[in-house]
Amino acid sequence: MNAVLLRRAVLGLFLLALALAPAFGGDFTITLLNYIGLYSLVALGLVLLTGVAGLTSFGQAAFVGVGAYTTAILTTRFGISPWLGLPAALAATAVVALILGWLTLRLSGHYLALGTIAWGISLSYVFGNVQGLGGFNGIPEVPSLSIPGYKFETTRQYFYLIWLVTLLALASIVGLLDSRPGRAIRALRNPVMAESFGIDTARLKIWVFLYAALLAGVAGWLHAHYLRFVNPGPFGLGYSLEYLFMIVVGGAGHVWGAIAGAALITGLKTWLQGILPKLLGSSGQFETIVFGILIVLLLQYASDGLMPWLDRLLPRRKVSRAPAEAKALGQAAFPARGSVILEVEDAQKAFGGLMAVNGLGFQIKAGEILGLIGPNGAGKSTMFNLITGLLPMSGGQVRFQGERLDGLPARAIVGRGIARTFQHVHLRPAMSVIENVAIGATRRGRKGMVSAALRLERAEERQILFEAARQVRRVGLAEHMDDAVGSLALGQQRIVEIARALAADPVLLLLDEPAAGLRHQEKQALAALLRGLRDQGMAILLVEHDIAFVMGLVDRLVVMDFGEKIAEGPPERVRRDPKVIEAYLGSAGTGP
Ligand code: ADP
Ligand code: MG
After folding, report:
1. For a substitution probing ligand 1, which of 348, 351, 388, 550 has the most ligand atoms within 8 Å of its CB?
2. Which ligand is nearest to the CA of 514?
3. What is the distance in A from the centroid of ligand 1 to the CA of 366?
4. Which of 73, 83, 74, 44 is nearest to 60 (CA)?
5. What is the pLDDT of residues 103-157, one digit of tens each?
């Protein structure tokens, strides 16, 4: 059977088993499945937030609590319908998430984790201690859900509702990840690259955080009306940790891992709670200890988690992401050949006492290749970072098509038509070549997260992937289109970076040592590509150490040493310049 069909069959069997569970399972099993569904809902948000975007939250259970308490208070004290409790729960969760997200997401690494622990604990303290929330006994007699003619009362009746919501959430995340905003979320782990291709990382982090919190809020709302009471217990730090366990055990970046992890952890815990007191003859909380040991063992032997392991058991599907056809994306017109498009004036960059760029000035015209060369440490990459807005200038100006660029963030500069590659590649190794290249086209799409979650942006997505595929073919990597970028040779990864920059539809292309690691033939192909781009009217600023490659390609050269310009002009003249010869002999020993 072919791989796609087999995967569909496995999915179909899972859904069938789920649909039939209430007919065959006992009350105990269905209760367990309901909890797994509720936990999965929270874990799904965490997959997006922590597994994909790399933002660890130790506070997710608190959002479940905000949703649960909001609806519990409104329905018991004010008698409003639970169906109005849902938007209220979501609104309350959103407000809390936006405030906490705004406060904590600017932190990174350990500080972010500690920040989420801090508000996670604070919120569970609020649930337990604020007047009117019922203290540790909580709020009883929360009404159950009903629709005209039907009352959700039994465990079985809730089963379908819980799993419907969970599967819809799963579908929304699958849709989201497979889209322009989804690729942007996956790029968040590399903020330098993300910002360089037009992604507002600070804002996107908040949206992702909000979405994960809202899923937790929905779980809280379901929890309150299913159990018909709320108390602070399930919303504390311990549960937040368990949600993290679930996604790690399930396979942190894997959407289905949320369900697999929730099932495994919940099942394991329940089983241990049942069996250990009998084995040990007393009823301490031994399950916590055994549970901990089992988790450690599991992570030792299957550190990727359950889903990636299951995934490998099934044959891979080999369907290319490159669409056969799509409407071409709009392209910017190149300015008149020979007109000055970029002017750098007295550029300065100080790192402490070191002037990495010191009073550098040059111009680039449309339709020319300008080489920027100089010994290691001359300040070439720093100059790139000044032009592209990755570093603020210490002095001087950069003007692009008459507009000041200095002071603009990187994501705005790529929007003006300047795209770059990096000397040290910034790619997402696990994503395919075409997906990495599609990140470059981020600025050329409009549709956001909501459209993506609802799959309303398929036409635009096809256009973006079509454009990405075109650029992959253009740079000669068609045969690697759907391979993971990390599996390519380093030289080829640099070429992927060029395709990604081209996908941004640049007027000016900045290449930082693109030929490093390429074989002779590959270098010739690269030179032909760059000449073709120039002939179309693109301007190219090229930093490259392979002097033979540079000399045969560029129209003009600017030579830097110690942050300053020491020569400028056509390649034949520059290579005879005594200052240039001295600079090269003084450092690497190989003159141009
Ligand atoms: P090139 O690309 O020409 O080899 P760079 O622009 O990378 O040179 O570096 C120029 C100088 O600035 C070097 O001395 C380097 O050590 C220093 N430098 C570059 N980036 C930083 C930074 N972020 N902090 C401090 N010093 C830096
Ligand atoms: Mg460099």
Report:
1. 351
2. 2
3. 28
4. 44
5. 999 887 788 889 999 999 999 899 999 888 888 889 999 999 998 888 898 999 9
